[in-house]
Structure formats: C-alpha cells, structure tokens
Amino acid sequence: MSATPVCTSATVEQAQQISNSLYMNRRTTAAFMGVSEKFLATHLVDGPKRLRVGSKIVYRLSDVEDWMRQQEMTR
C-alpha cells in the first residue's frame, strides 16, 4: 500500500500554480470586473459562480472570466 504524499509547506503561490486556480473575495472580484461590491451582492442568481467557504464568499477567477465572456455583446 502506498502512502499519498502530503504537502505541508506549500505557499499560496505554489498552491495556485498546482491547482491552476485563483480565488478572490468579493472586493477583489468587484475591482477586477470594474463593478461595485453591491452589484455582486445583488446578482447572486445571474452573476458569476461563487463558493461559500465557512462564512466567506469567494469567486474563482476562471468562473468570473467565463461569466464575463458570456456577457459579450455583438453589434
């Protein structure tokens, strides 16, 4: 039986590189999108996907970018 390796000393940056993902809080997400935090709070159903981690709400950068692409308008 082989043991699963456990990493105990990874930095946040190393973890982001491994998972290829970045999680942002509401303030950072709003700044990235160029909208207010209130916009995100009021667009829970039709806004970007979000995750609840304990009492915190976080947004995955890739989900925000996907949602923004879906909002593109053609002339």
Compute the average pLDDT.
83
* CATH 2nd-level architecture of the domain at 22-70: Orthogonal Bundle
How many strand elements?
3
**If helices are DSSP runs of H or I spanning 4 or more residues, what is the number of helices?**
4
Given the helix and strand composition, which structural class is it? alpha+beta
The CATH fourth-level homologous superfamily of the domain at 22-70: Winged helix-like DNA-binding domain superfamily/Winged helix DNA-binding domain
Q: Profile the largest sheet.
A: 3 strands, antiparallel
Care to describe what's here?
The structure is a single chain. The chain has a domain at about 20-70: Arc Repressor Mutant, subunit A. The protein contains four helices and three strands. A three-stranded antiparallel sheet has the order 1-3-2. It has helices at about 10-20, 25-35, 35-40, 60-70; strands at about 25, 50-55, 55-60. It is an alpha+beta fold. The mean pLDDT is about 85. Strand 2 and strand 3 (about 55-60) form a beta hairpin.
